[in-house]
Amino acid sequence: MVARLNQAINDNYIVKIKQKEAELSALQSKINPHFLNNTLQSLHAMAVLDKTREIETTIESLGSLFDYVLYETGDIVKAQEEMNYLESYLQIQQSRNSKRFEYAIEADAEAANCRMPKLLIQPIVENAILHGLGDSWSGGLIEVRLHYSAGRLEIRVTDNGKGMTAEQREHIDRLLRDEDTGSRSIGLKNVYDRLRLIHGSEGFTFGIESSPGEGTTILVGFPASTEY
Question: Where would I find the Histidine kinase/HSP90-like ATPase domain in this sequence (predicted)?
Answer without folding.
Answer: 116-226
